[in-house]
Amino acid sequence: MLNKKLLAPVIGLALLAPAALPAVAAADGVKVQSVEFVGMPAPSTPDEMAKLYTTASLQVTYTDGSVRSFPLTYKTLFKSTDKVGGTIAGVAVDAKGNPIMDTSVPNNPVPFVSDDPDSNSLMKIDGQKPTAKGGNPLTLITHYEYITNNNAGKSAYGVVPASMSRTTIDQNKKTGELVATDLHKIDFSGVDGLWIPCNGSLTPWNTHLGSEEYEADARAFEADPTQTYVGPFAKAYYQDDKKTGNPYAYGYLPEVTVKADGTNSVVKHYSMGRFSHELGRVAPDQKTVFFGDDGGNTMLFMYVADKAQDLSAGTLYAAKFTQTADDANGGAGTLSWINLGHATDAEIKAYIDKGVKFSDIFDTADKDTDGFSKIKTYPSGKTEWLKVKPGMEKAAAFLESRRYGAMLGATAEWNKMEGVAANAKDKKMYVVISYMEKGMEADTKKADPVDDIHMKKIKAGVVYQLDLKGGVKDSAGNAIHSEYAAATISGLVAGKDLAKADERGNTADDNLIANPDNIAYSEGLRTLFIGEDSGMHANNYLWAYNIDTKKLSRILTTPAGAEVTGLQSIDNLNGFSYIMSNIQHPGDEMILPDA
User: Fold this and answer.
1) Euclidean distance between CA atoms 387 and 378, whole angstroms
2) Virtual CA dihedral for 268, 14, 205, 93, nearest 10 degrees?
3) 492 CB-near residues (< 8 Å, 6+ apart)
4) Cα–Cα distance measured from residue 138 to residue 321, given in angstroms and rounded to the nearest whole number
5) Which residues of 317-343 are buried (b: 16+ CB within 10 A; e: fewer)?
6) What is the spatial distance between Cα 16 and Cα 555, in angstroms, rounded to a whole number?
7) Which of 131, 215, 283, 393 is the one with CA 20 to 30 A from 291?
């Protein structure tokens, strides 16, 4: 049996790299012909299962016939419990920027510190001053998704406000080595705080696009506020026991812009809809955005901004899925897009500031009733009968995007829709379904309002590809003003469930993906990186999938129970390439097979 004591709490923001781009290593006139990741075996001993490590490499073939191998290394930048420039990286802070204290153990107050780092955006800011170390100055934005437990061992998930940090990074000009020199917590007081920031992305215009997932059910909150985290969250964030909070203030994409002087600004994009934002990924046109919507009975959304590089106003669409295939790779289907409406951030923020409630937007019934739509979607997961009140269509579309989308006929059966990545050259988006089950299976009991998706269960999950093109019209026949609208979706990389656990306790094939979550794509390497969040593998892995050769290579293994998060692929940053990857909660979700 694996000894849990072997698991060191390695929660790092890390660098996985052959630091120099392979092209740099080529002789004059010689070019890179192909690249291939040479994978590593799965850990086989208790000591290996308790470690974060890689023995993989990148093999590069050049046009002169020569071949070179670049070993991968994993180097920790810092842990969420570390102080960087005097600030604890993962510390939770209130609206005034002060640490939120854990007083669960009498006479021993300590600050809440996250053990769950997620999204990374490593970026270069033009005009930024050099660090004291003399290297290239870079900036790293990092999410701290939640606090697992308080000091007394009780769950603090959702109760303690989450945070982001802005870290100055020194990049060695010769080696590409990264060193964190100072860290500051990002101020979200101007946007009501930050709610469960999961994954995120770097926009084409060099800003960080964050997330707020698992939005609170505003209907449940109105009926009984104690059934959501909104109240405890607001009390902790404002350090005020009288605060009740507002569920409609959370569930959006925050955008962080870093300035040349090292400071930053923050906005929330209310016009991009409110749902369980895993992340948003911007297409190459710099105005079309696709999202992960994490949870059960969720929805596929697309947003088209009015202007490139400006996400403050646009049109939100929800997808209707028509299935065309069901196979071991995840099946396929076509997508039609339902226009939910157009809004600006300011218009939707005005509803929030007025204190609009669920009952201000919808009338409800408790059975089939003329004029009411029968739906089932997250966050309630229950069958509901709803009717939008006159004049509240815009509020419904952007504050209750999933409910309103389901009322208009969009498919609300996706399950655990997580990471999203963009392939610019081939005009594709990649979207993860971490667990293909539940709402995505056929409704054999005929209990749900609709049954658009009826796939064979693949609990180990699937990475799908969306084919993007221009000239697409919405379901009403109106033009969608984007050259990157998705018309079809099909399975690309799938896991394989096992009929019974293997000798290591795996319930999914250990040589294929299991429960993919974070994904990132490298244009230069033609490679899709896939990180796991699985209880079906004894150890979670980071995989490299070559989209041309279809080769899947294991390139990193985490300590048993840990999750791969914060995945970012960077092809060229001052002449160096990086793959950023964190781990969360090592030892928390362990399979413990008998030896």
Assistant:
1) 17
2) 20
3) 329, 330, 430, 462, 463, 464, 465, 528, 547
4) 42
5) bbbbbebeebeebbbbbbbbbbbbbbb
6) 9
7) 393
* Chain position carrying tokens 């920031």: 197
Helix (H, G, I), strand (E, B) or coil at 271: helix
496-516 pLDDT, tens digit per residue, is 999 999 999 999 999 999 999
**Structure tokens that stand for 579 in this block:** 């793959």
Q: Predicted confidence band at 11 (pLDDT cuts at 50, 70, 90)?
A: very low
How far, rounded to the nearest angstrom, does the alpha carbon of residue 458 sit from its chain's CA centroid?
21
CA 332 to chain centre: 23
**Strand, coil or helix: 114:** coil
The percentage of the chain sitting over the pLDDT mark of 90, rounded to a whole number, equals 88
Q: CA-to-CA distance for 580 and 205, rounded, in angstroms?
A: 19
Residue 187: phi, psi to the nearest 5? -85, 115
Q: CA 68 to CA 181: how far, in whole Å?
A: 34
How many angstroms separate the CA atoms of 89 and 263, rounded?
Answer: 17
What 3-state class would DSSP assign to 341?
A: strand
Indicate the DSSP class of residue 187. Answer: P
577: tokens are: 């390439």
Give every CB contact of residue 224 below 8 A, 6+ residues apart in sequence: none
Q: In whole angstroms, what is the distance from residue 243 CA to residue 256 CA? A: 26
Residues in the chain: 595
Q: Give 322's strand partners.
A: 334
